[in-house]
Specification:
With about 450 residues, the protein is α/β, with parallel strands linked by helices. The protein has 2 domains: about 110 residues, Urease, subunit C, domain 1 (Roll), CATH 2.30.40; about 290 residues, TIM Barrel (Alpha-Beta Barrel), CATH 3.20.20.140. It is built from 16 helices and 16 strands. The strands form 3 sheets. The chain has an 8-stranded mixed β-sheet, covered by helices on one side. The protein has a 4-stranded parallel β-sheet with strand order 5-6-7-8, with helices on both faces. A 4-stranded parallel β-sheet has the order 9-10-11-12. Helix 9 links the parallel strand 10 and strand 11. Zinc ion binds next to loops. The site of zinc ion has 6 residues, from loops.
């Protein structure tokens, strides 16, 4: 739809600044975003919109920057109920001695429902409109996200051993295929396959996961090269680096999302770049668990698509993707010994368009372009802690931390209005969260 043909629209957002991400990272001023139904109909200079558009609802955002909703490409949403339960530990002792025992005790359908809602509330408040989840009871995660109108890639878990969600790989795969069939035509829910890690999934289920991905088009997300120990142990026990093993099994491809990649050799980079696999960078979880540092600038230079994730709130310990973008930019500078290694604009692209690419949905998500879905956020830059403004992208990455997200829309539907959630009953949610906190505290004390 062009400006000439528009006469009526559902929503018009008048923005002081606009960061559309595409076709360039440039910041535009005094722009109107026109929404019709679920999609962006046009982006016009405000004076043109005044002349040509009659919107049912006009939202004036005179101190705000408007941009695409953030895409948090890796997490375990319901682990928000374990936030702060086990800090200051390295990955394997965090998992083996604390998190897996706690999951064995507490994870249930109700835990997943409440913990996922708590995570969604935090993500919406900090600018995320699409998240990726890898956790138990994915059918509940999918339903909860769908019912709240949040977009989600929901990866069903795949491991060699029994968990609260199933007896082993065959059960996970058959329940997972049912999840894919249920949601394959949904715009909100992207069902996906979540083999946990190379050290918890053996070759046969990995190959079955690949075949399921090829048959259905579902994405496959895996924790990969998270620590030096993982890589050294694989070399010792299998004689292969994990990425090499995945490549040999045919598991690295354009549908594959590799989470972490803190240990990267030249050969690993070639495998990633040649296969078209995506890397999901989770710098804060990597820092907190002392897992290592992903060389983001090198991967970017070599043409690997690099998106951002928070990981779960028990290893981050928040789900603020603006904060993650800041950390990614800072860490890249330190790792490369180059202050320009990853700029604010690149960090915003990682948090938006690159996530959409990893999902295979960059034709309709990840940037503000006419025709794309209306997943949009607004951030109020009038507060003293983000004044004065020279480049709003700089403030979003280096000064903001997601505190000032005032509005968001997903599929053209308001999710945050003046900083308040429209679709989640927060007081009721907090009662349930406090109940879980009480139960978990009591067990810790016993
Ligand atoms: C199979 S469901 C997901 C499984 O992963 C665990 N987990 C959470 N964070 C991490 C991480 O950084 N590396 C490896 N595994 C992680 C989570 O507790 C679930 O058991
Ligand atoms: Zn994870």
């Amino acid at each position: 739809m062009t400006a000439d043909t528009i006469t009526a629209a559902d929503i018009r957002i008048n923005a002081r600044w606009l960061i559309p991400i595409e076709p360039s990272g440039a910041v535009l001023e005094h722009q109107a975003v026109i929404i019709q139904g679920t999609r962006i109909a046009a982006i016009l200079p405000i004076p043109d919109a005044d002349r040509e558009v009659h919107a049912r609802e006009v939202i004036d955002l005179p101190d705000h920057v408007v941009m695409p909703g953030l895409i948090n490409m890796h997490g375990h949403a319901a682990m928000s109920l374990f936030r702060g339960l086990a800090d200051d530990l390295p990955l394997m002792s965090w998992l083996n001695d604390h998190i897996w025992p706690a999951e064995g005790r507490f994870v249930s359908e109700q835990f997943i429902a409440d913990g996922t809602q708590l995570a969604m509330a935090e993500m919406l408040r900090t600018g995320t409109t699409t998240f990726s989840d890898m956790y138990f009871f994915p059918e509940i995660v999918a339903q909860i996200a769908h019912d709240s109108g949040m977009r989600a890639q929901v990866c069903f878990p795949l491991l060699d051993f029994p968990t609260v969600w199933g007896a082993g790989p065959e059960e996970y795969l058959s329940k997972g295929e049912a999840l894919i069939n249920t949601w394959k035509d949904s715009s909100y829910i992207m069902p996906a396959i979540g083999p946990h890690a190379p050290y918890t999934v053996s070759n046969a289920p990995l190959v079955e996961a690949r075949e399921l991905s090829e048959k259905t088009g579902a994405r496959l997300q895996i924790h990969l090269h998270e620590t030096a120990f993982e890589v050294a142990d694989a070399i010792e026990t299998r004689g292969q680096r994990p990425a090499e093993r995945l490549a040999a099994l045919g598991v690295l491809g354009t549908n594959t999302q590799c989470v972490h990649m803190t240990q990267v050799s030249d050969q690993d980079i070639s495998l990633l770049a040649d296969s078209g696999a995506h890397v999901i960078h989770c710098p804060e979880s990597n820092l907190k668990l002392a897992s290592g540092l992903c060389p983001a600038h090198r991967l970017w230079q070599e043409g690997v698509n690099l998106a951002l994730g928070t990981d779960g709130a028990a290893s981050n310990n928040d789900l603020d993707l603006f904060g993650e973008a800041r950390t990614a930019a800072m860490v890249a500078k330190a790792v490369a010994n180059d202050a320009s290694a990853l700029t604010a604009h690149q960090a915003l692209q990682m948090a938006t368009l690159n996530g959409a690419k990893a999902l295979g949905r960059d034709h309709e998500l990840g940037s503000l372009v006419a025709g794309k879905l209306a997943d949009i956020i607004a951030i109020d830059l009038s507060d003293p802690f983000i004044q004065p403004v020279y480049d709003p992208a700089s403030h979003l990455v280096y000064s903001n931390h997601g505190r000032a997200v005032s509005h968001s829309w997903i599929n053209g539907v308001p999710q945050v209005q003046d900083g308040r959630l429209t679709r989640i009953d927060v007081p009721d949610l907090m009662l349930r969260v406090e109940d879980w906190g009480g139960k978990i505290r009591a067990q810790q004390a016993s």
